[in-house]
Amino acid sequence: MTSEPVLELHHVFKSYHTPHYRSTPLKDVSVTIAKGAFITITGPSGTGKSTLFRLLTRLEEPDAGRIVYLGKPLLEWDPPRLRRKVHYVFQSPVLFPGTVADNLSYPARLAGDSITEEYMSSLLRRVALSEKYLSRGIGDLSGGEKQRVNIARSLSLEPDILLLDEPTSALDEKSTKHIEQEIRAYHEAGHTVLWITHSPEQAKRLGNVTWHLEDGCLEVLVAP
Amino acid sequence: MSIVTTLATTGFVFIAMLLSLRLRLGLERDMFTGTIRAMIQLVAVGYVLEFIFTSRHPLFIGCMLLVMVFVAARSSAKRGRGVPHVFARIFFTIAAVTAVTIGTMLGLDMIKWEPKSIIPVSGMVIGNCMIVSSLLLNQMRERSASMREEILVALSLGATSRQASERLTREAIRAGMIPIIDSMKTVGLVQLPGMMTGLIIAGTSPIEAVRYQLLIMFSFTAASALTSIILGFLVYPTLFTRAHQYIGWK
């Protein structure tokens, strides 16, 4: 593994305020992500883990500081293109109306492209679903199946950096193991993975670098 | 109809007010204000129209139409609070749709080049555009809130603002047009439309009145479609930043 930086955060601040509420999930966060790293992110609920992912994909802007991807500030990237390369998989699986195939081919269609049924079947196999699911309506899927289709749809983008927000929270133990295995294989193929988890056991299983976010501060923990 | 008869028509409102009092609906004050306002507004408009119809000057016709579009846009803009420059967007939409609709009617000789044709027909078109605009803005506001997650997921998959809001815009436009399509399906069976009723009472033959009514209904359909589409495409970008970030309406 090389230590070439793929993402860099320099003195990043982010806060939200309304007349009745004020929170600062990120206070002066500076950190570097090496190419090919597998980082797990832990921390209490509402401490800015998802905020961090929204900033890394430019779904939101930081109040101050700079984020750099492949040596170029995020502000210089075309946002749709950036989000295909640094891709955020949301915690709750949101699928579009239609069939599983419609959902799997959605990212390709956005780019004016198409994908074959064979490729869609291989995506489903990666999340332990059979090709029979392709013609299923999304209304017929269970919560766990929806999450697996959600992950398969994201894998179709083959992003450089995969940001996963508690992807296995709605899955049973067997499916969790399968998804962990698949994401590990994706990482071993040379991709960078950031994975938010609430489970210390899962964090231990997945990677040797953990970021702990609390009170707006990020602490890097490296397992021996 | 004599002035005395006209004044006697307020008797209908008194019946409603008495019922409201008896049933403790608490609507008497609103009914009274509404009646007075309607009388003053309509009498004033009656005198203004009489003046414009007599003078036949294009400048006065233009001013009257501008005032109508202005009032319609202001009323509809209340539904779009939080949408940047919503009044300007609605004003442009209604003005453009009215110009196209009335222009087509004049060009095809469906209505005559005279104030007594142009102003009432424009009024109906503008009123219809106002209702469609309000419906569309309501729909877009509700749907943009309920479809927030879906829009964010689409953006994260590499969609542009236009792609991410495609379903939202399409469904809001569709919902904005449903009332006019529904009313076309039941017209004549459930109720006789206002214009047709007015013409028949004024002595026009029912067949002639139907012809005018069809002209109005079909032009309303086109005007509704145009209003929904133009306004939908003018307001959806305000849900996003230039960097394709979803911000919604406050």
From TrEMBL, chain A:
Keywords: ATP-binding, Nucleotide-binding, Transport. The keyword Transport applies. Residues 7-224 form the ABC transporter domain. SUPFAM superfamilies: P-loop containing nucleoside triphosphate hydrolases. The keyword ATP-binding applies. SMART domains: AAA. GO terms for molecular function: ATP binding; ATP hydrolysis activity. This is ABC transporter ATP-binding protein. It comes from Aneurinibacillus danicus.
From TrEMBL, chain B:
The keyword Transmembrane applies. The keyword Hydrolase does not apply. GO terms for cellular component: plasma membrane. The chain crosses the membrane at residues 6-23, 35-53, 59-77, 86-106, 118-138, 187-207, 213-236. Coiled coil: none annotated. It holds the Pfam family UPF0014. Keywords: Membrane, Transmembrane, Transmembrane helix. Its main location: membrane. It is a multi-pass membrane protein. It is found in: Membrane. Belongs to the UPF0014 family. This is UPF0014 membrane protein YjkA.
